[in-house]
Amino acid sequence: MRGELRCSATLAFALLVGWHSALAQPYPAPGRSITIVVGYPAGGGVDVMARTLAHELARELGTTPIVENRPGAGGAVSVQTVARATPDGYTLFFGSLSELAVRQAAMKVPYDLDHDLMPISLVGVTPIALVVHNSVPAKTLAEFKAFVKASAAGVVYGSPGQGTLMHFAGEALRFKLDLPMKHVAYRGAAPLSNDLAGGHVPAGVSGLPPLVSLIEAGTVRLIATSSAARSKLTPDAESFGEAGIDGVDIANYVGLAGPKSIPAAVLQKLEAATLAACKSRDLEATFRRNLASVIGSTAAEYRAFIEQERAQQLQLIRATKFSISE
């Protein structure tokens, strides 16, 4: 019995020494890379912003983060990947926690944001916009409404995925204006952009980064943003609020997060590195070229923002009876 106790004590001591040794290791450890998991395919708006941030974090942390695209189930695959990872700061999530909160409120999901992820920093925001192929005879929301109402069969609009903020914004528009619109879910913004460019889908509700070149070329026309006030990033496009659509203020806020039990010291280092990266002129310029703006926040500020967004969007979810079935 005493021998078993001595063995158990020895094992416990070894584990304790190993744990303290792990904590004493510098972060990130030399030669170890950080993986940033993105829940969308490469080429989309969130992916572009993640890779831009990764480039800047390399300077701050001394190691180049690797962006890993894990699309599927409206972000659930990427959340589960990070939630199940060892909480040591080497596997992180980049995306919209606001989007995941909306999805969690609208359907049963295999994750819980409060228990699975730890917010690190709110990095930036891009407007969510209603766009149309240039063959659609509409330049304003009023003209788009008339176009849809005049269509006997209704109008199809695409979004980057079922249950995304873009889908939510599209359904809010449909509900508020009582439009006969039908939703088609794509596997990311890049394939949606391709179909919009080819005229295979007449309208789309999407984040703007993957659409910038199409808008500039005149292939796709920007109609409005799903915000209460006109965005400074898109001064020529009216907002839903300006057009008389009240109670809708939805934008794609993206940030960095880690597993829930990430150590405080690692969290602080990642928070500081992200805040420093967000002050980079190169990052700001890249975001602006893609019609996104940089924010940069502390972990505490990000947590408070998520709570505020969740409460605001929950009211809209109830009003529109937004639900997701897959």
Per the principal axes of the C-alpha atoms, what is the gross shape?
globular
Structural class: alpha/beta
Name the CATH superfamily classification of the largest domain.
Bordetella uptake gene, domain 1
- By DSSP, the count of extended strands is 11
User: What's the mean pLDDT score?
Assistant: 89
**Unreliable residue runs:** 4-23
CATH class of the largest domain: Alpha Beta
> How many discrete structural domains?
2
Protein traits:
326 residues; alpha/beta; D-Maltodextrin-Binding Protein, domain 2; 11-stranded mixed beta sheet; 11 strands; 44% helix
Task: Write structural notes for this entry.
- By secondary structure, the chain is α/β, with parallel strands linked by helices.
- The chain has two domains: 32-125 and 252-320, Bordetella uptake gene, domain 1 (D-Maltodextrin-Binding Protein, domain 2, 3-Layer(aba) Sandwich), CATH 3.40.190.150; 127-239, 3-Layer(aba) Sandwich (D-Maltodextrin-Binding Protein, domain 2), CATH 3.40.190.
- It is 44% helix and 20% strand.
- The chain has twelve helices and eleven strands.
- The protein has helices at residues 2-24, 45-61, 76-83, 97-106, 113-116, 141-149, 165-177, 189-197, 212-217, 264-277, 281-289, 299-320; strands at 35-38, 66-69, 91-95, 117-133, 155-159, 181-185, 203-207, 220-225, 238-239, 251-259, 293-294.
- Strands 1, 2, 3, 4, 5, 6, 7, 8, 9, 10 and 11 form an eleven-stranded mixed sheet that branches.
- Helix 2 (45-61) links the parallel strand 1 (35-38) and strand 2 (66-69).
- Helix 2 (45-61) packs across helix 10 and helix 4 runs parallel beside helix 12 (299-320).
- It starts with a helix and ends in a 6-residue tail after the last helix.
